[in-house]
Specification:
Rossmann fold; 12 strands; binds beta-D-galactopyranose; 6-stranded parallel beta sheet; binds calcium ion; 2 domains; alpha/beta
């Protein structure tokens, strides 16, 4: 069963790589969903709501309220920051630590679905879910809505059809997250801002790059892959994809992939990684290959993990994009609180990414302390 899933993911990954990665030319419209405009508009419209909801709540109301939180995988660096921040914030809003239960889906949808069923049996007041597979969202929503429990999805956005059902049926279901297209665009712009003369190290008029993708089922991975390259093309640059691999958000996997890619393609000028964990793995292989970021290669990630910020400050990473786990986790908790209070929420609660280079990396790092 597990094997089947893995090979299915691999096939999806390969298909996806062919479409979006090294085959990016002319494929942009295939991967651009028809809902782009709607989602962007929703993000803008809901910003105020998200901010208003940041007001501290009356603490005593929530001490006996039960919150169930499902995380797709505890070993994920970014989701660890997210869940810790959310737990602390909920406690600061008056929830009791023993009434906040956070479980590890171990990157297995069947495990997570069981956990959701257990939370339903326990009668939690609200569920916060970071799905293992966004494509299982419809099944998850049906389970949770049938049980009469409000639901806040985080980080892995369900597709537009699924989100439309929440509004159509007036269900207490929402999604909290940032628009991954923006993070991809920022990655590309960080490279473009360096100037083509600097990045085109071999002077052949093209940018030779390798792409290391997160989980290919995840829109964050899809959009970051697509929009980072689109930003170069929009600037009039010609790109040359040397390799496009799936690193599943994981540092050790990315380290191996980049080691192989660099030895097969020493002409690589830019390494794009869909997140910082993988960029940190890429950096280990860049070092091992005797290359120097900023001199004979460029490297970008997403998340602004503290270690990556230190690298941006030191010049060993070109840049990253701050994926604000603080505002996202607070907005998710605030949405849960609104449901508990009976106030309801918009069905999409957005946020903004922040471009990070050596100019502001220290400032971002300080803000996280
Ligand atoms: C992304 C994040 C990745 C990983 C992923 C999990 O937003 O950038 O590092 O945590 O979510 O879905
Ligand atoms: Ca070149």
């Amino acid at each position: 069963m597990k094997k089947k899933l893995v090979s299915l993911l691999t096939v999806t990954a390969m298909t996806f790589s062919m479409l979006v990665g090294c085959g990016s030319e002319g494929s942009a419209e295939t991967t651009q969903p028809a809902t782009t405009d709607t989602q962007t508009t929703q993000t803008t419209e809901t910003t105020d709501t998200a901010q208003t909801a940041e007001q501290p709540a009356a603490t005593s109301d929530f001490a006996d309220k039960k919150v169930g939180v499902c995380i797709y995988q505890f070993s994920d660096n970014f989701m660890t920051l997210f869940r810790n921040e959310m737990e602390n914030y909920l406690i600061s809003q008056g929830f009791s630590k023993e009434n906040i239960t956070i479980v590890d889906g171990a990157n297995d949808q069947a495990t997570q679905t069981n956990q959701i069923q257990n939370f339903i049996t326990q009668g939690v007041d609200v569920l916060v879910i970071n799905p293992v597979n966004s494509s299982s969202a419809a099944t998850i929503t049906d389970l949770v809505v049938d049980a009469g429990i409000p639901l806040v999805y985080i980080n892995r956005e369900p597709d537009a059809d699924e989100e439309a059902r929440w509004a159509d049926n007036n269900w207490n279901v929402t999604y909290v997250g940032c628009d991954a297209r923006q993070s991809g665009t920022y990655q590309g712009e960080i490279i473009v801002d360096l100037g083509q003369d600097k990045v085109d190290l071999n002077g052949d008029g093209k940018i030779q790059y390798i792409m290391i993708e997160g989980d290919p089922e995840n829109v964050d991975a899809q959009y970051r892959t697509e929009f980072s390259i689109k930003a170069l093309e929009d600037a009039g640059w010609t790109v040359d994809c040397l390799d496009d691999e799936v690193g599943n958000w994981d540092q050790a996997t990315a380290q191996q992939l980049v080691a192989n890619a660099l030895s097969a393609h020493p002409e690589t000028e830019v390494v794009f990684c869909n997140n910082d964990a993988m960029a940190l793995g890429a950096l280990q292989s860049i070092d091992a290959a005797g290359r120097k970021v900023g001199e004979d290669i460029y490297l970008v990630g997403v998340d602004a993990l503290s270690e990556a910020l230190e690298d941006v400050i030191a010049g060993t990473m070109t840049g990253t994009v701050f994926n604000d786990h603080i505002s996202q986790s607070h907005s998710a908790a605030d949405a849960a609180i609104n449901y508990i209070k009976g106030d309801g929420n918009d069905h999409y609660i957005g946020c903004d990414y922040v471009k990070v280079t050596s100019d502001n990396a220290q400032q971002i790092l300080d803000s996280l302390k």
